[in-house]
Amino acid sequence: MSEIDNLESLSNADLRKQCIKHGLPNVPITDSSRNILIKKLRASLSGSPASQTKKTPRRETIHVAKTTEAAIETKEVKAEPERRTPSRGANRRTFAGTPTFESQKPSENQTSENLTPAPIGARRRSTRDHEIPPSQKEQKSTKTYNPVVILESDEEDQDLLLAAEQVEQRSKSSLAREEANVRSRSSRSVSLSKTGVVTTSFNQPTVHPIAEVPQIPIRRETTESISHEIYKPQISANSGRFSLHSNLMQPNIGIGLNKDRDVPNTLHSRYSTNTLSSGLYSSKATPLYTEQSDDNEEAEGYETPFLSSFARNLERIKTDGVVLNKPSSIGGSDIGREYVSPRPVQPSRRYEISGRRPTKVSVTDSFRQLLIALDRKYNLRLYLVLVTVFLIMAFIFVMVYQ
Amino acid sequence: MAGTSQKYRNFVAEPMGEKSVTELAGIGETLGGRLIEAGFDKAYTVLGQYLILKKDEELFKDWMKEVCNASSKQASDCYNCLNDWCEEFL
Protein backbone atom coordinates (compact mmCIF):
# COMPACT_ATOMS: atom_id res chain seq x y z
CA MET A 1 0.00 0.00 0.00
CA SER A 2 2.79 2.32 0.81
CA GLU A 3 4.16 1.72 -2.63
CA ILE A 4 0.95 2.83 -4.21
CA ASP A 5 0.96 5.98 -2.20
CA ASN A 6 4.48 6.54 -3.31
CA LEU A 7 3.42 6.39 -6.87
CA GLU A 8 1.14 9.34 -6.49
CA SER A 9 3.88 11.46 -5.04
CA LEU A 10 6.62 10.42 -7.39
CA SER A 11 7.94 12.98 -9.78
CA ASN A 12 7.29 12.46 -13.45
CA ALA A 13 10.81 11.29 -14.06
CA ASP A 14 10.73 8.81 -11.23
CA LEU A 15 7.39 7.60 -12.30
CA ARG A 16 8.69 7.00 -15.75
CA LYS A 17 11.57 5.02 -14.40
CA GLN A 18 9.15 2.94 -12.45
CA CYS A 19 7.12 2.39 -15.55
CA ILE A 20 10.07 1.23 -17.54
CA LYS A 21 11.20 -0.97 -14.71
CA HIS A 22 7.85 -2.67 -14.65
CA GLY A 23 7.72 -3.26 -18.32
CA LEU A 24 5.28 -0.61 -19.26
CA PRO A 25 5.75 1.17 -22.54
CA ASN A 26 8.25 3.95 -22.43
CA VAL A 27 5.82 6.80 -22.50
CA PRO A 28 6.60 10.36 -21.48
CA ILE A 29 4.87 11.22 -18.25
CA THR A 30 2.83 14.33 -18.55
CA ASP A 31 0.15 15.77 -16.36
CA SER A 32 -2.43 14.41 -18.69
CA SER A 33 -0.98 10.96 -19.03
CA ARG A 34 0.19 10.65 -15.47
CA ASN A 35 -3.00 9.28 -14.05
CA ILE A 36 -3.45 6.41 -16.36
CA LEU A 37 0.17 5.50 -16.19
CA ILE A 38 -0.05 5.35 -12.43
CA LYS A 39 -3.06 3.15 -12.84
CA LYS A 40 -1.20 0.90 -15.20
CA LEU A 41 1.71 0.75 -12.91
CA ARG A 42 -0.48 -0.23 -10.06
CA ALA A 43 -2.10 -2.88 -12.12
CA SER A 44 1.23 -4.32 -13.09
CA LEU A 45 2.52 -4.07 -9.54
CA SER A 46 -0.49 -5.87 -8.23
CA GLY A 47 0.38 -8.75 -10.41
CA SER A 48 -1.11 -8.97 -13.86
CA PRO A 49 1.52 -7.79 -16.24
CA ALA A 50 -0.21 -9.80 -18.90
CA SER A 51 -2.64 -7.00 -19.49
CA GLN A 52 0.00 -4.56 -20.50
CA THR A 53 0.18 -3.36 -24.01
CA LYS A 54 -1.09 -6.16 -26.02
CA LYS A 55 -0.36 -4.79 -29.38
CA THR A 56 -3.05 -6.56 -31.29
CA PRO A 57 -4.04 -4.51 -34.24
CA ARG A 58 -7.59 -3.42 -33.97
CA ARG A 59 -8.50 -4.91 -37.28
CA GLU A 60 -7.48 -8.30 -36.23
CA THR A 61 -9.78 -8.38 -33.29
CA ILE A 62 -12.65 -7.30 -35.40
CA HIS A 63 -11.94 -9.99 -37.87
CA VAL A 64 -11.73 -12.53 -35.19
CA ALA A 65 -15.25 -11.65 -34.33
CA LYS A 66 -16.07 -12.16 -37.91
CA THR A 67 -14.54 -15.54 -38.08
CA THR A 68 -16.96 -16.83 -35.54
CA GLU A 69 -19.65 -15.49 -37.69
CA ALA A 70 -18.02 -17.12 -40.64
CA ALA A 71 -17.88 -20.39 -38.82
CA ILE A 72 -21.59 -20.32 -38.42
CA GLU A 73 -21.95 -19.47 -42.01
CA THR A 74 -19.75 -22.35 -42.94
CA LYS A 75 -22.15 -24.79 -41.47
CA GLU A 76 -24.92 -23.22 -43.35
CA VAL A 77 -23.11 -23.32 -46.58
CA LYS A 78 -21.94 -26.82 -46.11
CA ALA A 79 -25.39 -27.97 -45.37
CA GLU A 80 -26.85 -26.40 -48.40
CA PRO A 81 -24.80 -27.91 -51.14
CA GLU A 82 -25.72 -31.35 -49.87
CA ARG A 83 -29.31 -30.58 -50.29
CA ARG A 84 -28.65 -29.16 -53.63
CA THR A 85 -26.57 -31.77 -55.24
CA PRO A 86 -29.03 -32.35 -58.05
CA SER A 87 -28.52 -28.83 -59.24
CA ARG A 88 -24.84 -29.08 -59.65
CA GLY A 89 -25.03 -27.91 -63.17
CA ALA A 90 -26.53 -24.69 -62.02
CA ASN A 91 -23.74 -24.32 -59.52
CA ARG A 92 -21.14 -24.68 -62.05
CA ARG A 93 -22.58 -22.28 -64.38
CA THR A 94 -23.05 -19.68 -61.79
CA PHE A 95 -19.46 -19.74 -60.93
CA ALA A 96 -18.17 -19.86 -64.39
CA GLY A 97 -16.41 -16.68 -63.55
CA THR A 98 -14.39 -18.12 -60.73
CA PRO A 99 -11.13 -17.72 -62.62
CA THR A 100 -11.03 -14.27 -61.12
CA PHE A 101 -10.63 -15.81 -57.75
CA GLU A 102 -8.42 -18.43 -59.11
CA SER A 103 -5.81 -16.00 -60.11
CA GLN A 104 -5.60 -14.72 -56.60
CA LYS A 105 -5.81 -18.05 -55.03
CA PRO A 106 -2.22 -19.05 -54.64
CA SER A 107 -1.56 -16.08 -52.48
CA GLU A 108 -4.63 -16.79 -50.44
CA ASN A 109 -3.62 -20.29 -49.75
CA GLN A 110 -0.14 -19.35 -48.98
CA THR A 111 -1.21 -16.77 -46.48
CA SER A 112 -3.88 -18.83 -44.91
CA GLU A 113 -1.36 -21.40 -43.95
CA ASN A 114 -0.10 -19.07 -41.35
CA LEU A 115 -3.39 -18.94 -39.56
CA THR A 116 -4.70 -22.34 -38.88
CA PRO A 117 -8.12 -21.88 -37.36
CA ALA A 118 -11.26 -20.49 -38.87
CA PRO A 119 -10.56 -21.09 -42.51
CA ILE A 120 -12.44 -18.40 -44.29
CA GLY A 121 -12.35 -15.56 -41.91
CA ALA A 122 -8.71 -16.11 -41.29
CA ARG A 123 -8.03 -16.29 -44.89
CA ARG A 124 -9.79 -13.12 -45.52
CA ARG A 125 -7.93 -11.34 -42.89
CA SER A 126 -4.66 -12.77 -43.91
CA THR A 127 -5.11 -11.87 -47.49
CA ARG A 128 -5.72 -8.39 -46.42
CA ASP A 129 -2.81 -8.25 -44.15
CA HIS A 130 -0.45 -9.75 -46.59
CA GLU A 131 -1.57 -8.20 -49.74
CA ILE A 132 -2.19 -4.72 -48.71
CA PRO A 133 0.67 -3.54 -46.58
CA PRO A 134 2.73 -2.37 -49.52
CA SER A 135 1.10 0.95 -49.09
CA GLN A 136 -0.89 2.14 -46.20
CA LYS A 137 -2.94 4.43 -48.28
CA GLU A 138 -4.43 1.63 -50.20
CA GLN A 139 -5.34 -0.05 -47.03
CA LYS A 140 -7.00 3.09 -46.00
CA SER A 141 -9.04 3.33 -49.08
CA THR A 142 -10.24 -0.20 -48.91
CA LYS A 143 -11.14 0.27 -45.37
CA THR A 144 -13.37 3.13 -46.14
CA TYR A 145 -15.10 1.25 -48.84
CA ASN A 146 -15.69 -1.92 -47.03
CA PRO A 147 -18.02 -0.62 -44.42
CA VAL A 148 -20.53 0.35 -46.98
CA VAL A 149 -20.83 -3.12 -48.12
CA ILE A 150 -20.46 -4.94 -44.95
CA LEU A 151 -23.19 -3.01 -43.37
CA GLU A 152 -25.59 -4.01 -45.98
CA SER A 153 -24.64 -7.49 -46.85
CA ASP A 154 -22.14 -8.74 -44.43
CA GLU A 155 -23.81 -12.00 -43.88
CA GLU A 156 -24.49 -12.58 -47.45
CA ASP A 157 -21.01 -11.65 -48.30
CA GLN A 158 -19.48 -14.23 -46.08
CA ASP A 159 -21.96 -16.77 -47.08
CA LEU A 160 -21.19 -16.27 -50.66
CA LEU A 161 -17.52 -16.06 -50.21
CA LEU A 162 -17.62 -19.47 -48.73
CA ALA A 163 -19.71 -20.73 -51.52
CA ALA A 164 -17.41 -19.15 -53.99
CA GLU A 165 -14.41 -20.78 -52.53
CA GLN A 166 -16.03 -24.13 -52.38
CA VAL A 167 -16.97 -24.06 -55.94
CA GLU A 168 -13.67 -22.59 -56.74
CA GLN A 169 -11.94 -25.60 -55.36
CA ARG A 170 -14.28 -27.97 -56.99
CA SER A 171 -13.97 -26.42 -60.34
CA LYS A 172 -10.37 -25.55 -60.19
CA SER A 173 -9.31 -28.03 -62.76
CA SER A 174 -12.30 -27.79 -65.00
CA LEU A 175 -12.54 -24.14 -65.65
CA ALA A 176 -12.16 -24.34 -69.34
CA ARG A 177 -14.81 -27.00 -69.43
CA GLU A 178 -17.14 -24.82 -67.50
CA GLU A 179 -16.68 -21.97 -69.81
CA ALA A 180 -17.52 -24.30 -72.59
CA ASN A 181 -20.57 -25.39 -70.66
CA VAL A 182 -21.75 -21.90 -70.36
CA ARG A 183 -21.30 -21.31 -73.99
CA SER A 184 -22.97 -24.47 -75.09
CA ARG A 185 -25.78 -24.35 -72.60
CA SER A 186 -28.59 -23.78 -74.99
CA SER A 187 -29.24 -21.05 -77.45
CA ARG A 188 -28.73 -18.39 -74.86
CA SER A 189 -25.07 -18.25 -75.57
CA VAL A 190 -25.29 -15.45 -78.05
CA SER A 191 -27.31 -13.24 -75.84
CA LEU A 192 -25.06 -14.20 -73.00
CA SER A 193 -22.01 -12.86 -74.62
CA LYS A 194 -23.95 -9.83 -75.51
CA THR A 195 -25.10 -9.38 -71.98
CA GLY A 196 -21.58 -9.70 -70.77
CA VAL A 197 -20.53 -6.75 -72.77
CA VAL A 198 -23.52 -4.62 -72.13
CA THR A 199 -23.77 -5.13 -68.45
CA THR A 200 -20.19 -4.60 -67.64
CA SER A 201 -20.26 -1.36 -69.46
CA PHE A 202 -23.38 -0.45 -67.63
CA ASN A 203 -22.31 -1.29 -64.16
CA GLN A 204 -18.65 -0.72 -64.18
CA PRO A 205 -18.30 2.98 -63.53
CA THR A 206 -20.29 2.97 -60.37
CA VAL A 207 -19.34 -0.39 -59.09
CA HIS A 208 -15.66 0.07 -58.79
CA PRO A 209 -15.26 0.61 -55.09
CA ILE A 210 -17.87 -1.86 -54.13
CA ALA A 211 -16.43 -4.52 -56.29
CA GLU A 212 -13.97 -5.01 -53.54
CA VAL A 213 -16.57 -6.60 -51.43
CA PRO A 214 -15.68 -10.20 -51.95
CA GLN A 215 -12.53 -9.49 -50.09
CA ILE A 216 -10.41 -10.79 -52.77
CA PRO A 217 -7.00 -9.41 -52.16
CA ILE A 218 -7.85 -5.86 -52.61
CA ARG A 219 -5.72 -3.56 -54.55
CA ARG A 220 -6.64 -0.57 -56.50
CA GLU A 221 -4.95 -1.68 -59.61
CA THR A 222 -6.48 -5.08 -59.54
CA THR A 223 -9.98 -4.05 -58.76
CA GLU A 224 -10.46 -2.79 -62.19
CA SER A 225 -9.92 -6.11 -63.78
CA ILE A 226 -11.69 -7.81 -60.97
CA SER A 227 -14.83 -5.85 -61.29
CA HIS A 228 -14.71 -6.51 -64.94
CA GLU A 229 -14.51 -10.18 -64.62
CA ILE A 230 -16.73 -10.43 -61.69
CA TYR A 231 -19.54 -9.14 -63.65
CA LYS A 232 -19.52 -11.77 -66.22
CA PRO A 233 -20.44 -14.43 -63.79
CA GLN A 234 -23.09 -12.27 -62.42
CA ILE A 235 -24.71 -12.01 -65.72
CA SER A 236 -24.49 -15.57 -66.63
CA ALA A 237 -26.00 -16.39 -63.33
CA ASN A 238 -28.76 -13.96 -63.76
CA SER A 239 -29.58 -15.06 -67.17
CA GLY A 240 -29.69 -18.60 -66.01
CA ARG A 241 -32.11 -17.68 -63.40
CA PHE A 242 -34.07 -15.63 -65.75
CA SER A 243 -34.56 -18.38 -68.16
CA LEU A 244 -35.62 -20.62 -65.36
CA HIS A 245 -38.17 -18.22 -64.19
CA SER A 246 -39.38 -16.96 -67.44
CA ASN A 247 -41.26 -20.15 -68.15
CA LEU A 248 -43.31 -19.65 -65.08
CA MET A 249 -43.71 -15.97 -64.76
CA GLN A 250 -43.20 -13.14 -67.11
CA PRO A 251 -42.32 -10.32 -64.75
CA ASN A 252 -39.13 -11.93 -63.93
CA ILE A 253 -36.73 -9.08 -63.96
CA GLY A 254 -38.26 -7.87 -60.83
CA ILE A 255 -37.24 -11.02 -59.10
CA GLY A 256 -33.82 -11.06 -60.45
CA LEU A 257 -33.11 -7.60 -59.27
CA ASN A 258 -34.89 -7.69 -56.02
CA LYS A 259 -33.26 -10.82 -55.05
CA ASP A 260 -29.94 -9.28 -55.38
CA ARG A 261 -30.95 -6.20 -53.64
CA ASP A 262 -32.37 -6.70 -50.29
CA VAL A 263 -30.40 -8.72 -47.94
CA PRO A 264 -33.36 -9.99 -46.02
CA ASN A 265 -34.91 -11.10 -49.23
CA THR A 266 -32.26 -13.55 -50.09
CA LEU A 267 -33.85 -16.06 -47.87
CA HIS A 268 -37.17 -15.69 -49.48
CA SER A 269 -35.81 -15.67 -52.90
CA ARG A 270 -33.89 -18.73 -52.10
CA TYR A 271 -37.01 -20.48 -51.18
CA SER A 272 -38.89 -19.27 -54.13
CA THR A 273 -36.22 -20.62 -56.38
CA ASN A 274 -36.26 -23.80 -54.44
CA THR A 275 -39.74 -24.38 -55.63
CA LEU A 276 -38.47 -23.97 -59.10
CA SER A 277 -36.03 -26.72 -58.32
CA SER A 278 -33.36 -25.84 -60.77
CA GLY A 279 -32.24 -22.34 -59.96
CA LEU A 280 -31.24 -23.44 -56.50
CA TYR A 281 -27.65 -22.73 -56.35
CA SER A 282 -27.66 -19.83 -58.63
CA SER A 283 -30.04 -17.97 -56.41
CA LYS A 284 -27.68 -18.44 -53.60
CA ALA A 285 -24.50 -17.86 -55.41
CA THR A 286 -25.26 -14.90 -57.56
CA PRO A 287 -25.64 -12.38 -54.81
CA LEU A 288 -21.95 -12.70 -54.28
CA TYR A 289 -21.50 -10.78 -57.42
CA THR A 290 -24.73 -9.02 -57.83
CA GLU A 291 -24.82 -7.67 -54.37
CA GLN A 292 -22.18 -5.35 -55.53
CA SER A 293 -24.72 -3.67 -57.63
CA ASP A 294 -26.85 -3.10 -54.61
CA ASP A 295 -25.85 0.42 -54.22
CA ASN A 296 -25.89 1.71 -57.68
CA GLU A 297 -28.93 -0.06 -58.88
CA GLU A 298 -30.98 0.32 -55.83
CA ALA A 299 -32.06 3.86 -55.48
CA GLU A 300 -34.92 3.02 -53.23
CA GLY A 301 -34.30 0.32 -50.69
CA TYR A 302 -36.45 -2.72 -50.67
CA GLU A 303 -36.16 -3.33 -47.05
CA THR A 304 -39.29 -5.27 -46.50
CA PRO A 305 -39.11 -8.89 -47.32
CA PHE A 306 -41.89 -9.92 -49.60
CA LEU A 307 -43.90 -12.97 -49.08
CA SER A 308 -43.65 -14.17 -52.59
CA SER A 309 -41.85 -13.38 -55.73
CA PHE A 310 -45.09 -12.22 -57.18
CA ALA A 311 -45.56 -9.65 -54.49
CA ARG A 312 -42.05 -8.55 -55.03
CA ASN A 313 -42.66 -8.16 -58.69
CA LEU A 314 -45.71 -6.16 -58.01
CA GLU A 315 -43.78 -3.89 -55.75
CA ARG A 316 -41.04 -3.62 -58.21
CA ILE A 317 -43.33 -2.66 -61.00
CA LYS A 318 -45.11 -0.18 -58.84
CA THR A 319 -42.02 1.55 -57.65
CA ASP A 320 -40.13 1.46 -60.83
CA GLY A 321 -42.44 2.27 -63.65
CA VAL A 322 -39.77 2.65 -66.23
CA VAL A 323 -38.09 -0.66 -65.91
CA LEU A 324 -40.66 -2.92 -67.30
CA ASN A 325 -40.79 -6.55 -67.91
CA LYS A 326 -39.59 -7.58 -71.16
CA PRO A 327 -40.71 -10.55 -73.13
CA SER A 328 -38.19 -13.26 -72.63
CA SER A 329 -37.79 -13.54 -76.35
CA ILE A 330 -35.66 -10.46 -76.38
CA GLY A 331 -32.08 -11.37 -76.03
CA GLY A 332 -32.58 -13.37 -72.89
CA SER A 333 -32.07 -11.50 -69.69
CA ASP A 334 -29.33 -9.03 -69.66
CA ILE A 335 -29.53 -6.63 -66.83
CA GLY A 336 -27.79 -3.93 -68.66
CA ARG A 337 -30.26 -3.90 -71.47
CA GLU A 338 -33.09 -4.37 -69.22
CA TYR A 339 -32.89 -0.76 -68.38
CA VAL A 340 -32.59 0.37 -71.88
CA SER A 341 -34.72 -1.79 -74.02
CA PRO A 342 -38.03 -1.78 -72.20
CA ARG A 343 -38.82 1.70 -73.33
CA PRO A 344 -39.21 0.94 -76.95
CA VAL A 345 -40.65 -2.43 -76.20
CA GLN A 346 -43.57 -1.33 -74.14
CA PRO A 347 -44.52 2.14 -75.03
CA SER A 348 -48.04 1.65 -73.82
CA ARG A 349 -46.92 1.77 -70.24
CA ARG A 350 -45.11 4.92 -70.81
CA TYR A 351 -48.21 6.53 -72.17
CA GLU A 352 -50.16 5.30 -69.28
CA ILE A 353 -47.77 6.89 -66.88
CA SER A 354 -47.49 10.08 -68.77
CA GLY A 355 -51.23 10.14 -69.06
CA ARG A 356 -51.44 10.88 -65.42
CA ARG A 357 -49.31 13.95 -65.67
CA PRO A 358 -51.78 16.12 -67.61
CA THR A 359 -54.24 15.95 -64.74
CA LYS A 360 -51.71 17.78 -62.70
CA VAL A 361 -50.86 20.16 -65.44
CA SER A 362 -54.54 20.94 -65.91
CA VAL A 363 -54.46 23.05 -62.77
CA THR A 364 -53.18 25.90 -64.85
CA ASP A 365 -55.80 25.13 -67.43
CA SER A 366 -58.55 25.35 -64.94
CA PHE A 367 -57.13 28.59 -63.68
CA ARG A 368 -57.16 29.95 -67.13
CA GLN A 369 -60.71 28.83 -67.58
CA LEU A 370 -61.63 30.57 -64.37
CA LEU A 371 -60.09 33.75 -65.64
CA ILE A 372 -61.97 33.48 -68.87
CA ALA A 373 -65.21 32.95 -67.02
CA LEU A 374 -64.54 35.95 -64.81
CA ASP A 375 -63.71 37.97 -67.82
CA ARG A 376 -66.96 37.05 -69.42
CA LYS A 377 -68.99 37.82 -66.39
CA TYR A 378 -67.38 41.02 -65.11
CA ASN A 379 -65.72 42.36 -68.20
CA LEU A 380 -62.35 42.12 -66.55
CA ARG A 381 -60.66 42.86 -69.78
CA LEU A 382 -62.35 46.21 -70.06
CA TYR A 383 -61.22 47.19 -66.61
CA LEU A 384 -57.76 46.00 -67.36
CA VAL A 385 -57.61 48.11 -70.49
CA LEU A 386 -58.96 51.09 -68.62
CA VAL A 387 -56.41 50.74 -65.86
CA THR A 388 -53.51 50.39 -68.27
CA VAL A 389 -54.67 53.39 -70.26
CA PHE A 390 -54.93 55.38 -67.08
CA LEU A 391 -51.46 54.33 -66.03
CA ILE A 392 -50.02 55.27 -69.38
CA MET A 393 -51.72 58.64 -69.22
CA ALA A 394 -50.42 59.25 -65.77
CA PHE A 395 -46.96 58.25 -66.86
CA ILE A 396 -47.05 60.60 -69.80
CA PHE A 397 -48.45 63.35 -67.60
CA VAL A 398 -45.67 62.93 -65.12
CA MET A 399 -43.02 62.83 -67.82
CA VAL A 400 -44.30 65.88 -69.63
CA TYR A 401 -45.01 68.17 -66.72
CA GLN A 402 -42.14 67.33 -64.62
CA MET B 1 -14.64 -3.71 -39.54
CA ALA B 2 -18.26 -3.33 -38.71
CA GLY B 3 -18.71 -0.20 -40.68
CA THR B 4 -17.60 3.29 -39.94
CA SER B 5 -19.61 6.30 -39.13
CA GLN B 6 -20.00 9.32 -41.25
CA LYS B 7 -18.18 11.24 -38.60
CA TYR B 8 -15.25 8.92 -38.80
CA ARG B 9 -15.07 9.24 -42.54
CA ASN B 10 -15.32 12.97 -42.39
CA PHE B 11 -12.56 13.19 -39.92
CA VAL B 12 -10.22 10.80 -41.61
CA ALA B 13 -10.85 12.32 -44.98
CA GLU B 14 -8.89 15.50 -44.42
CA PRO B 15 -6.31 17.17 -42.22
CA MET B 16 -7.88 18.02 -38.94
CA GLY B 17 -6.84 21.63 -38.91
CA GLU B 18 -8.61 23.47 -36.16
CA LYS B 19 -11.43 21.04 -35.79
CA SER B 20 -12.98 20.84 -32.40
CA VAL B 21 -12.82 17.70 -30.29
CA THR B 22 -16.40 16.94 -31.01
CA GLU B 23 -15.50 16.26 -34.60
CA LEU B 24 -13.66 13.19 -33.51
CA ALA B 25 -15.54 9.98 -33.99
CA GLY B 26 -16.95 8.68 -30.76
CA ILE B 27 -16.94 12.06 -29.11
CA GLY B 28 -20.24 13.80 -28.96
CA GLU B 29 -21.52 16.75 -27.04
CA THR B 30 -21.14 15.17 -23.66
CA LEU B 31 -17.70 13.79 -23.99
CA GLY B 32 -16.67 16.85 -25.90
CA GLY B 33 -17.78 18.98 -23.01
CA ARG B 34 -15.81 16.92 -20.56
CA LEU B 35 -12.75 17.00 -22.74
CA ILE B 36 -12.97 20.73 -23.17
CA GLU B 37 -13.27 21.04 -19.43
CA ALA B 38 -10.10 19.02 -19.13
CA GLY B 39 -8.40 21.36 -21.55
CA PHE B 40 -8.69 19.31 -24.68
CA ASP B 41 -10.71 21.67 -26.77
CA LYS B 42 -9.29 20.91 -30.18
CA ALA B 43 -9.01 17.64 -31.94
CA TYR B 44 -5.30 18.14 -32.23
CA THR B 45 -4.91 18.25 -28.48
CA VAL B 46 -6.43 14.83 -28.28
CA LEU B 47 -4.16 13.82 -31.09
CA GLY B 48 -1.31 15.13 -29.04
CA GLN B 49 -2.31 13.01 -26.13
CA TYR B 50 -2.64 10.08 -28.44
CA LEU B 51 0.87 10.71 -29.66
CA ILE B 52 2.23 11.23 -26.19
CA LEU B 53 0.88 7.84 -25.33
CA LYS B 54 2.80 6.64 -28.33
CA LYS B 55 -0.26 5.55 -30.20
CA ASP B 56 -0.75 2.84 -27.69
CA GLU B 57 -4.28 1.63 -28.09
CA GLU B 58 -4.79 0.45 -24.59
CA LEU B 59 -3.25 3.46 -22.93
CA PHE B 60 -5.17 5.82 -25.08
CA LYS B 61 -8.45 4.11 -24.47
CA ASP B 62 -7.80 4.06 -20.78
CA TRP B 63 -6.94 7.68 -20.92
CA MET B 64 -10.16 8.43 -22.75
CA LYS B 65 -12.12 6.51 -20.20
CA GLU B 66 -10.51 8.38 -17.42
CA VAL B 67 -10.47 11.87 -18.73
CA CYS B 68 -13.99 11.97 -20.06
CA ASN B 69 -15.68 8.82 -18.86
CA ALA B 70 -15.86 7.45 -22.35
CA SER B 71 -17.34 4.06 -22.91
CA SER B 72 -15.22 1.38 -24.46
CA LYS B 73 -16.91 1.90 -27.75
CA GLN B 74 -16.48 5.60 -27.71
CA ALA B 75 -12.87 5.23 -26.75
CA SER B 76 -12.16 2.77 -29.48
CA ASP B 77 -14.04 4.84 -32.02
CA CYS B 78 -11.91 7.76 -31.14
CA TYR B 79 -8.80 5.68 -31.17
CA ASN B 80 -9.59 4.26 -34.59
CA CYS B 81 -10.34 7.68 -35.85
CA LEU B 82 -7.05 9.12 -34.70
CA ASN B 83 -5.11 6.07 -35.64
CA ASP B 84 -6.39 6.09 -39.16
CA TRP B 85 -6.00 9.77 -39.43
CA CYS B 86 -2.36 9.35 -38.47
CA GLU B 87 -1.88 6.61 -40.98
CA GLU B 88 -3.17 8.97 -43.57
CA PHE B 89 -1.69 12.29 -42.63
CA LEU B 90 1.03 11.97 -40.10
From TrEMBL, chain A:
InterPro entries given in the database record: LEM/LEM-like_dom_sf, LEM_dom
SMART domains in UniProt: LEM
Organism the protein comes from: Bactrocera dorsalis
Record-given protein name: Otefin
Keywords from the named record: Membrane, Transmembrane, Transmembrane helix
Sequence segments annotated as region (Disordered): 71-146
Database matches in Pfam families: LEM (PF03020)
Biased composition (Polar residues): 100-115
TrEMBL record, chain B:
Lineage: Eukaryota, Metazoa, Ecdysozoa, Arthropoda, Hexapoda
MF (Gene Ontology): DNA binding
A cellular-component GO term for this protein: nucleus
Keywords: Nucleus
Any one Gene Ontology BP term: chromosome organization
UniProt-recorded name of the protein: Barrier-to-autointegration factor
Subcellular location(s) per record: Nucleus
Protein origin, superkingdom: Eukaryota
Species name: Bactrocera dorsalis
